[in-house]
Structures are given as structure tokens and as C-alpha cells.
């Protein structure tokens, strides 16, 4: 594609240099530039892409997108807002792939990853080709890709969508993080539906206040539904959790058709008669499409919410209720979410990705429903993330745990011991007995200690890292998988 043609996607631009320059690829990270690529200079929060233009040129960039003319020897497309231009130019370069398939976006503090997998199973069982992108991985057809972040940068997103379209994907199920919404990574993407899971405290380091965090989530819904159509294929849906107060604001923001789901409040897709055990969850579904009894292997009331969002969305796609039930009942576990570690021991070990106060509350209140012995919790808080959630996570955990091992999560660039100290005030606030808690920086040792001390019928929750297979310490990712560490500890007991 010529630079001129790319520029035609924007009204106000100025080409400095040869407009006929060939563009073979498009990138916003100088380290990924290949010969012939256009390098987008993005002024960021920690760096300014304009400073990396010489590096990009050294790697063979054929042109730049800049916000001001740089004294450099290659053509430049000068734009008003490089970040916005990145979203527009990427969509144009890849031929607007989001219009060629149905993209369903999931947003909310907790439950996004889980919900994408539930809907993926339902749609796959119907014979649809699905793509999935989120915290654990990206899947295109049957190929898996590692993800750097939950929601990719605009250039990578559009490139991934193109690959999905090339594989004849019918539905793309994607997590849409609040960072992505705020930073415009998903601007211009045509969503079929938006699913809102819930809103509770997280990421205040980035958003500052809960209001700003909620407003970021709202961006997904405010862009939905403009352009009504009789054709069901062209409709857009906002699928909202009727039991979460934030849904009211979202319903005012959107022009899409709203489908509500929930347990407590009146709604379109509702679960009643919920039974929770350590082996699964059952409920009666009452919906605009009929009633059915569900017997899921997934554990916890929060997974009923995740199932309801997926059910509402599948009903909007015309999937029969019976088929939805069969698919959901066949799912054994979502990677690292309430995953049982079984080495034949007499106590239950669960690895879960709860890393917010609400996530922990949900995981632990679920365990409280069926625990017969002691509840033993191992958890920590990630470094370089919202510090204000640390004592709250301590307090929540204390409320449910008979024994507590406070340890490291991903310390990233912070001092691990200092992170543990940020959790302590939450325990002190509720006078959690000192003899019931240990602060152990080394996560492996903490897990081993918890497992060594467990008795028959106890339940151990190892929270925070779920599916992760590494521990990030000072930017170095060390091999670490809670499930493998727990297995080894169970086998090593008493030795
Ligand atoms: C707050 C945030 O999300 N920041 C992301 C954002 O930063 P930024 O736009 O300010 O960019 P920057 O790092 O200042 O760099 C400016 C520009 O220089 C470029 N650059 C930089 C260095 C270099 O050598 N060469 C180069 O070209 C960068 O590619 C970028 O285009 O864009 C960068 C490039 O894509 C990301 O690396 C960075 O992610 C940071 C590291 C991050 O940790 N993000 C997390 C919090 C995040 O996004 N998380 C959410 C999930 C949260 C959840 O679900 O719980 C996610 O969607 O993954
Ligand atoms: N609907 C829900 N409501 C509250 N808590 C939930 C819900 N679903 C899952 N959880 C808890 O939150 C944890 C994370 O779940 P999941 O990975 O599905 O969320 P996510 O929104 O994708 O998180 P992230 O923001 O890290 O991508 C789970 O391990 C579980 O403890
Ligand atoms: N997407 C979340 C994941 C947190 C997972 C937890 N293990 C941590 O490292 O804090 C984040 O980046 O905040
Ligand atoms: Mg996720």
C-alpha cells in the first residue's frame, strides 16, 4: 500500500516527502520494525515513540507517522493525534477486518477470561469458527499464540483480526480491558455485542478513581447500537449484569438492544435455585427463550454469573437453549480458575486467579459454602499495580481464612517484602490473630508450608496467579506454576 493511500483514511494530515512510498507493514514498536514498514511514533506515558524513529529507520522503516516533522531522511505522515491515527491507519491497512466477523467484547473487573471460554465452547459446538483473545492466550482456529497483554495494541489487534478473517472466523471473543478502552486500542472496532461482567476495585493506580475506571468500561457500550436494523445480523447487543449497580449507567450510555442477566434482580436471563458444592453448581434458568436446569462442573456463584452472560449472548446469536446447556455442562474447568490440584491427597487444593478484593471474596465465599475442614489461603499482591487494593485484599482474606500465608505474587519492580507489608494493615484492622498468619516472601515456600500443615478435609486456596507459568521479579520471568509447585509439595509431604 502507498503512503498516500494510507493517508486517505484521515481528513487532516500532511505528507512530508514522497507520498508514493510503499508501505509493507505497520508497527508502533521500533523493536519490531522490518524493512518497508511504517513506524508510528506514539507519545506514551513512559516513553515518546518519536525518540525511537532513528532506531526504526536503522531497521529499515520506509516512512513515519509523526505529530511533528522530524529532521530525519524518510517520508513522514504528520497527524494531529498519533494514537488515534494508529487505530484508524491499522484498520485501513488491514482492510477493516472487524466488519467481516462478529466480535463480542467482554469487559468488567472479574470474569472476562472465564466468560470468553464459556461462550467459545457454546459457539464452537454449534460449528462456528471462533477466535479468542485475552489474558491466557490468543487462539486463531486451532493455533495458539502467547499474549503480552490482555488486550493488544491497535496495530496488533487489527493484524490479529485479519488473520482470524483469513481463517474464516465467524466469531471473535475478546476481553476488552479498561486500559485498552482508555488508551484507544479498540477505537473503530465494530462490536456485535458488549458483555459487562461486574465492577469492583482494581487498577486505581492507572485510572485514579472508581468513577474514571467505570467511565473507561462505559466506552465499550457508548459506541454500541448506533444504526438500527431490521436484519438480526446487523443488530448490536449490550449484555448487562442486572445485579451490578454500574449497569444502570451503561444502559443509559448505549443505543444497543439490552439483555440483562442476574440472580437477585428482575432480568431477562435469570438463575434461581442455585446449589453450590465442591464438585459443581446447579441452577434453574428462567429466560425470554424458555427455562432449563443446568448442572455445571464449574464451581462458585460467580461462575453462575459468568454462565448467565454467556447464555444471554448465545441466545442473542440464536443458539437453542438445550444446546447451550449441553455445552456449558461439558466444561470441566477454565485454566487456572478454581482449578483442582489432585495428587490423591485427603484435602482439597484449588488454584485460582483471584487478584482483586472482589475476586478473593468470591473465591473464598464459594469455598465457605462447602469447606468441612480449615480454610487455608495463600495469596499476595502484584507489584507495580494498584497499591490501595493490598490492605483490602488482606482484610477480605482474613474474614474467610483459618490460616493465612501472605506471600509474593509478581513483585515486578517493587521490593517483595514491602508489598507484603502493604497487606498487613488489612489484617490488623480486623485483629487477625498473629498465630494464624505467616508472611513468607518466597511463594514456593509459602505453598509448601500450607500444604505440609493441611489436615483431612481442609481446603487450600492458592490465589492470584491461576494459569500463569512464571513469576515476574525485576522484569525477569522465572518459571513458576502454582499447580506444579502444589503438586510437588503434596508428593513431598512428610519427607
Ligand atoms: C498503561 C499501559 O497499558 N501502558 C501501555 C502503553 O504504554 P504507552 O502507550 O504509554 O507507551 P510507552 O511505553 O510510553 O511507549 C511509547 C511508544 O514508544 C514505543 N517504544 C518504546 C520503547 C522502544 O524501545 N521502542 C518503541 O518504539 C512503544 O511501543 C510506544 O508505542 O503501550 C505500551 C506499548 O503497547 C505498553 O507496553 C504499555 O503497557 C504497560 C507496560 C502495561 O503494563 N500495561 C498493563 C497495565 C495493561 O495494559 N494491562 C491490561 C490488562 C489489565 C487487566 O485485565 O487486568 C491489558 O490490556 O493487558
Ligand atoms: N463473575 C465474577 N465475579 C467475581 N469474581 C469472579 C467472577 N469470575 C471470576 N471471578 C474471580 O476472579 C478471578 C479472575 O477471573 P477471570 O480471569 O475470568 O477474570 P478477568 O476479568 O479476565 O481478569 P483480568 O482482569 O485479570 O483479565 C477468578 O479466578 C475468580 O476468583
Ligand atoms: N491483568 C492483571 C493481572 C494480575 C495478575 C496478578 N498475578 C498480578 O500479577 O498482579 C494485571 O495486570 O493487573
Ligand atoms: Mg482476563
Automatic annotation (TrEMBL):
Molecular function, one GO term: ligase activity
Post-translational modification: Carboxylation is probably crucial for Mg(2+) binding and, consequently, for the gamma-phosphate positioning of ATP.
Organism encoding this protein: Paenibacillus marchantiophytorum
Enzyme class name: ligase
Domain Mur ligase N-terminal catalytic: start-end pairs: 23-72
Motif annotated as Meso-diaminopimelate recognition motif, chain positions: 409-412
Residues engaged in binding meso-2,6-diaminopimelate: 385, 409-412, 464, 468
Name of the molecule in the record: UDP-N-acetylmuramoyl-L-alanyl-D-glutamate--2,6-diaminopimelate ligase
SUPFAM superfamilies xref list: MurD-like peptide ligases, catalytic domain, MurD-like peptide ligases, peptide-binding domain, MurE/MurF N-terminal domain
Pathway annotation: Cell wall biogenesis; peptidoglycan biosynthesis
Function as written in the Swiss-Prot or TrEMBL entry: Catalyzes the addition of meso-diaminopimelic acid to the nucleotide precursor UDP-N-acetylmuramoyl-L-alanyl-D-glutamate (UMAG) in the biosynthesis of bacterial cell-wall peptidoglycan.
Cross-referenced Gene3D superfamilies: Mur ligase, C-terminal domain (3.90.190.20), Mur-like, catalytic domain (3.40.1190.10), MurE/MurF, N-terminal domain (3.40.1390.10)
Modified residues (N6-carboxylysine): 217
Keywords (A to Z) from UniProt: ATP-binding, Cell cycle, Cell division, Cell shape, Cell wall biogenesis/degradation, Cytoplasm, Ligase, Magnesium, Nucleotide-binding, Peptidoglycan synthesis
Record bears the keyword Glycoprotein: no
Record EC number: 6.3.2.13
Pfam family, one: Mur_ligase_C
Domain Mur ligase central: 107-314
Location in the cell: Cytoplasm
Similarity section: Belongs to the MurCDEF family. MurE subfamily.
Enzymatic reactions: UDP-N-acetyl-alpha-D-muramoyl-L-alanyl-D-glutamate + meso-2,6-diaminopimelate + ATP = UDP-N-acetyl-alpha-D-muramoyl-L-alanyl-gamma-D-glutamyl-meso-2,6-diaminopimelate + ADP + phosphate + H(+)
Lineage: Bacteria, Bacillati, Bacillota, Bacilli, Bacillales
Binding site for UDP-N-acetyl-alpha-D-muramoyl-L-alanyl-D-glutamate: 30, 150-151, 177, 185
Residue positions binding ATP: 108-114
Cofactor(s) the protein requires to work: Mg(2+)
Ranges of residues in domain Mur ligase C-terminal: 336-466
Amino acid at each position: 500500500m502507498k503512503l498516500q493511500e494510507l493517508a486517505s483514511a484521515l481528513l487532516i494530515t500532511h505528507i512530508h516527502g514522497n507520498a508514493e512510498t510503499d508501505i509493507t507493514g505497520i508497527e508502533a514498536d521500533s523493536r519490531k520494525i522490518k524493512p518497508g514498514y511504517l513506524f508510528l511514533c506514539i507519545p506514551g506515558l513512559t516513553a515518546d515513540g518519536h525518540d525511537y524513529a532513528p532506531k526504526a529507520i536503522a531497521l529499515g522503516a520506509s516512512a513515519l507517522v509523526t505529530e511533528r516533522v522530524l529532521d530525519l531522511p524518510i517520508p513522514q505522515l504528520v497527524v494531529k493525534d498519533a494514537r488515534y491515527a494508529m487505530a484508524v491507519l491499522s484498520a485501513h491497512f488491514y482492510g477493516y477486518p472487524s466488519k467481516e466477523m462478529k466480535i463480542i467484547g467482554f469487559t468488567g473487573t472479574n470474569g472476562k477470561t472465564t466468560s470468553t471460554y464459556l461462550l467459545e465452547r457454546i459457539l464452537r459446538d454449534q460449528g462456528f469458527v471462533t477466535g479468542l483473545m485475552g489474558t491466557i492466550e490468543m487462539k486463531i482456529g486451532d493455533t495458539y499464540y502467547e499474549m503480552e497483554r490482555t488486550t493488544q495494541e491497535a496495530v496488533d489487534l487489527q493484524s490479529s483480526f485479519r488473520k482470524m478473517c483469513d481463517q474464516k472466523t465467524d466469531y471473535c471473543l475478546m476481553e476488552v480491558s479498561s486500559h485498552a478502552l482508555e488508551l484507544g486500542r479498540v477505537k473503530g472496532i465494530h462490536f456485535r455485542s458488549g458483555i459487562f461482567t461486574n465492577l469492583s476495585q482494581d487498577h486505581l493506580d492507572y485510572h485514579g478513581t472508581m468513577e474514571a475506571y467505570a467511565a473507561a468500561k462505559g466506552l465499550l457500550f457508548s459506541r454500541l447500537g448506533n444504526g438500527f436494523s431490521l436484519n438480526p445480523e446487523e443488530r448490536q447487543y449490550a449484555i448487562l449484569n442486572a445485579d451490578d449497580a454500574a449497569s444502570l449507567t451503561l444502559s443509559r450510555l448505549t443505543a444497543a438492544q439490552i439483555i440483562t442477566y442476574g440472580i437477585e434482580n428482575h432480568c431477562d436471563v435469570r438463575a434461581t435455585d442455585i446449589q453450590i458444592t465442591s464438585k459443581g453448581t446447579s441452577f434453574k434458568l428462567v429466560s425470554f427463550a424458555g427455562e432449563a436446569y443446568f448442572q455445571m462442573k464449574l464451581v462458585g456463584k460467580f461462575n453462575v454469573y459468568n454462565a448467565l452472560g454467556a447464555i444471554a449472548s448465545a441466545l442473542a446469536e440464536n443458539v437453542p437453549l438445550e444446546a447451550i446447556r449441553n455445552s456449558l455442562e461439558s466444561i470441566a474447568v477454565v485454566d487456572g480458575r478454581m482449578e483442582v490440584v489432585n495428587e490423591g491427597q485427603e484435602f482439597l487444593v484449588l488454584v485460582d486467579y483471584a487478584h482483586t478484593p472482589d475476586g478473593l471474596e468470591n473465591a473464598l465465599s464459594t469455598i465457605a459454602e462447602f469447606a468441612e475442614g480449615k480454610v487455608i489461603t495463600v495469596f499476595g499482591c502484584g507489584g507495580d499495580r494498584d497499591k490501595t487494593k493490598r490492605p483490602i485484599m488482606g482484610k477480605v482474606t482474613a474474614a474467610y481464612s483459618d490460616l493465612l500465608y501472605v506471600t509474593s505474587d509478581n513483585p515486578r519492580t517493587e521490593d517483595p517484602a514491602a508489598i507484603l507489608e502493604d497487606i498487613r494493615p488489612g489484617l490488623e484492622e480486623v485483629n487477625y490473630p498473629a498465630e494464624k498468619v505467616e508472611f513468607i516472601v518466597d511463594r514456593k515456600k509459602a505453598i509448601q508450608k500450607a500444604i505440609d500443615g493441611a489436615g483431612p478435609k481442609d481446603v487450600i486456596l492458592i490465589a492470584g496467579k491461576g494459569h500463569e507459568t512464571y513469576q515476574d521479579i525485576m522484569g525477569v520471568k522465572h518459571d513458576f506454576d502454582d499447580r506444579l509447585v502444589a503438586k510437588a509439595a503434596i508428593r513431598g509431604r512428610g519427607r
